[in-house]
Amino acid sequence: MVILKTPEEIEIMRRAGRVVAKTFDMIAENIKEGMTTSALDEMVEETIRSQGALPAFKGYQGFPASACISINDEVVHGIPGNREIKDGDIVSVDIGSILDGFYGDSARTYAVGEISEEKKKLMDVTVKSLNAGIDKARKNNRLGAISAAVQEVAEAAGYGVVRQLVGHGIGRAMHEEPQVPNFGSADEGVQLEVGMVLAIEPMINLGTHRVKTMPDGWTVVTADGMPSAHFEHTVAITENGPDILTLS
Ligand code: MG
Ligand code: MG
């Protein structure tokens, strides 16, 4: 069942989303070569808590940290630890917050130092695919319109669209119905309605769309070792079109 949100609930979700967005702004200013991913995670947790919110991922199904930090060929769900971020890395950070009982969920990929042209283009296209998907988050569209728009932008650039992991509804739970795939056809899926809130999150690979999970049980990596990028926003469907809730 898809749970619709009232305008008042959407405003609470906007505040939860703003906590995450401000945390991303903090990361943009601080992420650098030589920093360990656990040091970055500590800063994330402190920034979330300093805004009166809780880090949603900490303890979620046993996840041990506040941020998922995934570098280069790591797609999502990387566990922070003593790995140092290097010049030329692309670092995907996924963060969730809980504020007044509602969740915010967003992800960004950061370039550290000088990155290759191919990584730069991968990041650009992933952002474009997210924006194309968000633009279809309008009432009376089918859910598949979002999926198809993301897929079209990514595949036109020759990239692999991850299929094993998808976006999701979000509200009083981090993962609600419906699932939001990043591939599919525009005429399939539920009809979008005002009050739906969706986390739209393309995970786009430079090479194959295929992924595998590492023995730690969390970290998802590309099957061919090529880099991957991940951008995500929490988006409400309103009478006036898509409303991105994870902005600062
Ligand atoms: Mg996320
Ligand atoms: Mg998500």
Describe the structure.
The chain has 248 residues and is of the alpha+beta class. The chain has four helices and 15 strands. The strands form four sheets. The protein has a five-stranded antiparallel sheet with strand order 8-7-9-14-15. Strands 1, 2, 4 and 5 form a four-stranded antiparallel sheet that branches. A hairpin with a 2-residue loop joins strand 14 and strand 15 (241-244). The longest helix has 24 residues, at 7-30. The protein is globular, with a radius of gyration of 17 Å. It binds magnesium ion (MG) (2 copies). Residues 94, 96, 105, 107, 201, 232 line the site of one magnesium ion.
Radius of gyration: 17 Å
Overall shape: it is globular
CATH architecture: Alpha-Beta Complex
Query: Could you describe the largest sheet, including whether it forms a barrel?
Result: 5 strands, antiparallel
Sequence stretches where pLDDT stays below 50 over 5 or more residues: none
Count of DSSP strands: 15
The small-molecule ligands in this entry are: magnesium ion
Provide the descriptors you would attach to this structure in a database record.
15 strands, binds magnesium ion, Creatine Amidinohydrolase, 248 residues, 27% strand, 4-stranded antiparallel β-sheet, 4 helices, alpha+beta, globular, 5-stranded antiparallel β-sheet
Please provide a brief summary of the model.
With 248 residues, the protein is an alpha+beta fold. The chain has helices spanning 7-30, 37-50, 117-135, 143-156; strands at residues 54-55, 67-71, 74-76, 90-99, 102-111, 160-161, 167-169, 176-180, 197-200, 203-205, 211-213, 220-222, 228-230, 233-238, 241-244. The longest helix is centred in the N-terminal third of the chain and has 24 residues, at 7-30.
